[in-house]
Design brief:
- The chain has helices at 8-17, 32-41, 81-93, 107-118, 167-174, 194-204, 220-229, 235-245, 259-267, 275-282, 291-305, 312-319, 329-348, and strands at residues 56-59, 74-77, 98-101, 126-129, 143-146, 150-154, 160-164, 186-191, 214-216, 253-255.
- It is an alpha/beta fold.
- A 6-stranded parallel sheet has the order 1-8-5-2-4-3. A two-stranded antiparallel sheet has the order 6-7.
- Helix 7 (220-229) crosses helix 10, helix 9 crosses helix 10 and helix 11 runs parallel beside helix 13 (329-348).
- The relative contact order is 0.12.
């Protein structure tokens, strides 16, 4: 996460700024050298502990090719919601119950789906998921099947691109199969399409590239200093000026993409807020492509600027609580947006 072009700065701040005597960082080996370098500069000691996989993981010599060949313990990994919906429907049409896990679901829903899939007494024995399964979930998977190896990514300019997953991602996701402590003593990995199998094998046998640099973002104190000398500049302008004039230690750091920050800053520029409060609002981790979330973000800012409490009752009225069970995909997408709003509410608190 340190190298994420948009939110890497938040992880850098957490690593270097958390108030604790001892910090435990879990991650891939590609991050070890960078974390050592970052900590050495600030005079901190680093102890590295390496752990080996306790079960075997086999890359199969054949692809699945057909939904008819799925079996209990399978996890089909997709990188788009459309694929998730399409695959899960095909599985259910064949009389199989399946669990679904992807990043847009609330944590409680993900855990409930994982529990259903893991329960030996539950008929749900097939999982359809995104790479969200590689983050903090213990799953009883026998075989991981990559439906595709192409994943949407964000480049340095904040533009969406489609690219093949990295070796790190392939290992992280494929490694979910046959985890120690589950009902399976080993794991298997393959692809859905035969033409992807060679690429997967090449990825899994490649050396992981080290993470070269960690993300940075201007702090509130730095922006306040600029604002003192440029009292008439907007927050968006202040950020632009700061980034254009700043020099970054290229050996360990890079400046994160600031487009999302500037988008939020421009959205609430007309709202009367103190600079520090305006800065905090603009650091909020929201998806600017979701109109409902952006509308609620603006309402939060206006309510705060008027000195009115942003209570849970107020929030429930704004989002239309309580809700009916979703009947269409669009209903489900709206509920995901509502969850993002609730997440934003907790973040701002």
């Amino acid at each position: 996460m340190l190298r994420d072009n948009c939110r890497g700065w938040a992880w850098t701040r957490a690593l270097l700024g958390v108030c604790a005597e001892e910090i435990h960082v879990c991650g891939e080996e590609a991050a070890v050298d960078l974390v050592k370098d970052l900590c050495m500069v600030v005079g901190e000691e680093v102890e590295v502990r390496k752990y080996k996989r306790l079960t075997d993981l086999k890359v199969l010599d054949y692809a699945l090719e057909s939904i008819d060949k799925v079996r209990p313990g399978d996890c089909i990994v997709c990188f788009s919601k459309n694929d998730i919906y399409a695959i899960s429907r095909q599985i259910e049409k064949r009389g199989h119950e399946c669990a679904v896990i992807y990043g847009g679901l609330p944590p409680g829903t993900k855990l409930a789906q994982a529990k259903k899939f893991n329960d030996p007494n539950n008929p749900c024995k097939i999982l359809v998921a995104t790479d969200a399964i590689g983050m903090g979930l213990n799953l009883s998977i026998k075989r991981v099947i990559f439906y595709s190896l192409i994943k949407p990514t964000m480049n340095e300019k904040g533009e969406k691109e489609m690219d093949t997953i990295t070796t790190s991602q392939a290992l992280q996701i494929g490694g979910r199969a046959g985890r120690y402590g589950t009902q399976f003593e080993d794991g298997e990995v393959t692809t859905f399409k035969t033409e992807d199998l060679h690429t997967l094998k090449k990825l899994l046998n490649s050396q992981i590239e080290n993470i070269e640099a960690a993300g940075l973002h201007p702090t509130a104190e730095q922006i306040e200093l600029f604002a003192y000398h440029l009292p008439n500049a907007t927050l968006s302008n202040l950020i632009d000026i700061f980034v254009s004039l700043s020099q970054v230690d290229d050996a360990n750091y890079f400046m994160c993409n600031i487009d999302d920050f500037k988008f939020l800053a421009d959205m609430i520029q007309h709202v009367p807020l103190e600079l520090r409060a305006r800065y905090v609002f603009c650091c909020a981790p929201i998806n600017r492509k979701m109109p409902f979330v952006c509308t609620m973000f603006l309402k939060f800012a206006r309510q705060y600027s008027q000195g009115e409490p942003i209570t849970f009752d107020w929030l429930c009225r704004q989002i239309g609580w309580p809700f009916q069970a979703p009947e269409t995909i669009m209903d489900l997408v709206h509920l995901e947006c509502v969850f993002d709003v609730l997440d934003l509410y907790l973040w701002l608190r």
